Amino acid sequence: MEGIVTKSTGSWYNVRDKNGKLYQCRIAGKLKLDDMKLTNPIAVGDRVLFEPENDHPDNGIIQQILPRKNYVVRQSPRKKHYLHFLASNIDQALLVVTIREPNLKPGFIDRFLIMTETYNIPVIIAFNKSDLYDPEDMAQFEEFKSVYTDIGYEVIACSALTGQGTQEIRDRLKDKITLISGQSGVGKSSLINAIEPSLDLKTLQISEYSGKGQHTTTFAEMFDLSFGGHIIDTPGIKTLTFMHLEVADVAHNFREFFQLSQDCRFSNCTHRNEPHCAVKEALSEGRISDWRYINYLTIVEEIEDQNYWERRSDV
């Protein structure tokens, strides 16, 4: 039977067949997986072939993972040599951020986009908690919006509390499979509840001690939307690192840099010290964002600072 994985807990997977029935499934011991070090070899959104168990008709064994059209993967936060699937076979991603409570970490948006750009997955950047923004915050939002819309991403100001922007987001989610992600504490679950109140996802307040968000989503899970489409809710992200990438991967996934790079003198230009670099020329002329370029340099330096033997280049 063919089905789609709607929840992953690490060892058990909820699989929904074409008739909407849910099965609790395990992986067959003989299942051949890709040659990657993965903390979760099957992702929510995967299409799989499975067999119901004779003794337990609501349980099943996953025999095969069908080809993926795309996937979003990050470095495992616990095992630095392993990767962790966030989702697969998605139409788009909704990245939820906020300028206040907690304060936006510089570079987080760009780090997330590195994960989606490989498959040209459209990303909507939702700036939540807009009801808290003062004039200085709104000026910062407008700057973010200008930079990211100029390079092809959609940016929406929204508030789960007031409802600002929620209809706009609802329109974007309709009839699509959307990965929803963000840092812990940005109000992701509250925003989802505002868009689809029937889900009633658990929410927590920002920790008064640390000023940081707390995890409310434990496992990735797919939910149906009453107005059409599906969302894949994922646990809040605290940090994103990329030990599994090379410098060229980062350069290729900053989309405006990649577009300009065809005019660089050297085909393997890293846009730092090389002469006749089109990216640096655009930077000096104010045609690309200076803080996007700084974020790029920070990520590249992190990768290069790691010991060669600690980095994996085969995934």
Number of H/I helices:
8
| Estimated radius of gyration | 21 Å
Which CATH-level-2 architecture of the largest domain? 3-Layer(aba) Sandwich
Total beta strand runs: 13
Helical amount among residues, as a percent range? Answer: 10-25%
Beta-strand residue fraction: 15-25%
Whole-number count of domains:
3
The residue-averaged pLDDT reads 89
Main beta sheet strand tally, sense and closure:
6 strands, mixed
Termini Cα gap: 30 Å
Order of helices and strands: EEEEEEEEHEHEHEHEEHHHH
* CATH secondary-structure class of the largest domain: Alpha Beta
Strand order of the largest sheet: 10-9-8-11-13-12
Low-confidence stretches: 206-217
The CATH superfamily title of the largest domain: P-loop containing nucleotide triphosphate hydrolases
CATH topology of the largest domain: Rossmann fold
Helix vs. strand class: alpha/beta
Global geometry: globular
Could you explain how this protein is built, in words?
With 315 residues, this protein is of the alpha/beta class. The protein has three domains: 2-65, Nucleic acid-binding proteins (OB fold (Dihydrolipoamide Acetyltransferase, E2P), Beta Barrel); 90-233, 3-Layer(aba) Sandwich (Rossmann fold); 247-310, Orthogonal Bundle (Ribonucleotide Reductase Protein R1, domain 1), CATH 1.10.40.50. Helices cover 25% and strands 23% of the residues. It contains eight helices and 13 strands. A six-stranded mixed sheet has the order 10-9-8-11-13-12, sandwiched between helices. It has a five-stranded mixed barrel with strand order 1-2-3-5-4. A two-stranded antiparallel sheet has the order 6-7. Strand 2 (13-17) and strand 3 form a beta hairpin. The two termini are 30 Å apart.
